[in-house]
Amino acid sequence: MAQRLIVIGGDAAGMSAASQARRRRDRANLEIVVFERGHFTSYSACGIPYWISGLVPNPEALIARDPETFRTTFAMDVRMRHEVTAIDLERREVVARDLDGGGEVRERFDDLMYATGAVPVKPPWADTDAGGVFGMQTLDDGAALREWLDGDPKPRRAVVVGGGYIGVEIAEALFERGLSVTLVEATEQPMAKVDGDMAELVADAMRGLGITIRTGLRVTGLEQQNGRVSAVVTAEGPMPADVVVLGLGVRPNAALAEAAGFPIGPTGGIRVDRRMRVPGRPGIWAAGDCVETLHRVSGMPVHVPLGTHANKQGRTAGINIGGGYATFTGVIGTAVTKVCDLEVGRTGLREQEAAEAGFEFVSVVVESTNRAGYYPGARPMTVKLIAERPSGRLLGAQIVGWSEAAKRIDTLAVALWNGMTVDDMTSLDLGYAPPYAPVWDPVLIAARKAVDALDR
Ligand SMILES: Cc1cc2nc3c(=O)[nH]c(=O)nc-3n(C[C@H](O)[C@H](O)[C@H](O)COP(=O)(O)OP(=O)(O)OC[C@H]3O[C@@H](n4cnc5c(N)ncnc54)[C@H](O)[C@@H]3O)c2cc1C
């Protein structure tokens, strides 16, 4: 009799796992049932801001594989608009509710892949029945926002609450659509994933575009008129808004797992081993935004909800479920984003994270350019390196610049992943030609400066 795999969550982690398992085991050996509560499978949530802005013409463009493709090409039983509401580990069953048709089903599993993603942080004040207030996590969330923006009356004033990278990307998207946009951030700077000095460059660029940024200001409530949001309430009084987007971060969507007794780590994510198995629960797997993982530099468990990890972790789980061997060995915190033409990249630890992890370190910042200074299109680029003292081991790096900045972080990520010191990095054989870099690449200049700062 065929083994039975049930997948909860039909996006990056869940469908990567299901596809890998199918590649290794055919229908006769493995029956695969997928429950997805939304309307889409295998979509790029990362592309939502570009659909909101209009750069990407339609949501279909963001879908890698639709449910029908999984059914016909991959022989999977994909049940859309089905929300799993309980996991019974003893009977090895899940309970799922049909959100459109009504009714409940119970399905048996041998293996269970838990891939429910994350949920946007929603403070009590955001619990409202007023229209026009959105969290941003799934393509359904993006569709709801698009519908509001295209509706009648058309919103003109947007407030984005919270300046993480999703808040910043959505602020840019709304601005590109022609809305007047205010980003409200409770701390001193948006973009807290980079150090304050680097975040300031991002905030300046956003202000330069015409996005209003209010920092050190907390939203405490919402006002509404005729069932539509009309303002956010702050200590400085109401701020008019026809649409409000929450960018307050996300937390692991682990409630079902917790109720079923899966081990939950200190970050709130499900604990998994390097093969993406839930420890002590044979045949139970978890991956993506709902799990915590190891930070390879700090050695601490972290929750890093990124598509790049969800895909790799899902793939790892699927290979193992299919009878192969694969491991996911942790993250180093590499991430990139942009605000209009300004690119931002980071890898490793920020200063505060390095201090919390107990490292002694130096940090240096260099101003350079993306191309030879004389070459048309040369624009500023700021590189920051954090290196352990006295070893010189690279602990973290951040880049802010106008073009070719974001993907330059990958050079630094590879150096960091491989435990290079800034001394080693000074002689890296990086490509040089005037259209691509100054003769001393900004990365090399920063490494030299870090060696000097170590003062050994
Ligand atoms: C606006 C935005 C921009 C982003 N940009 C980037 C980027 O540039 N780079 C990057 O690396 N990452 C980015 N991300 C993050 C990335 O999209 C996520 O890390 C990734 O989608 C996580 O994949 P996942 O499969 O773990 O979870 P999800 O993609 O959230 O999928 C989980 C699925 O499970 C379903 N589900 C949840 N509970 C149940 C249930 N009980 N029953 C049935 N189904 C359920 C949900 O409907 C959802 O479809 C972005 C995210 C957003 C929102």
Main β-sheet, in a few words?
Answer: 5 strands, parallel
The level of helicity is 25-40%
**Topology, number of strands:** 25
Bound compounds, each kind once, are: flavin-adenine dinucleotide
User: What proportion strand?
Assistant: 25-35%
Q: Give the end-to-end Cα distance, rounded to a whole number of Å.
A: 67 Å
Average pLDDT works out at: 96
| Gyration radius from CA atoms, angstroms | 23 Å
> What sort of overall outline do the alpha carbons produce when their principal axes are compared?
globular
User: What ranges have pLDDT less than 50 throughout 5 or more consecutive residues?
Assistant: none
- Strands in their spatial order, largest beta sheet: 3-2-1-7-18
Protein structure class = alpha/beta
Number of helices: 12
Write a structural description.
The chain is α/β, with parallel strands linked by helices. It has twelve helices and 25 strands. The mean pLDDT is about 95. A five-stranded parallel sheet has the order 3-2-1-7-18. The N and C termini lie far apart (about 65 Å). The chain binds flavin-adenine dinucleotide. Flavin-adenine dinucleotide (FAD) binds near residues 49, 118, 288 and 289. Flavin-adenine dinucleotide binds near residues 12, 45, 115, 166 and 288.
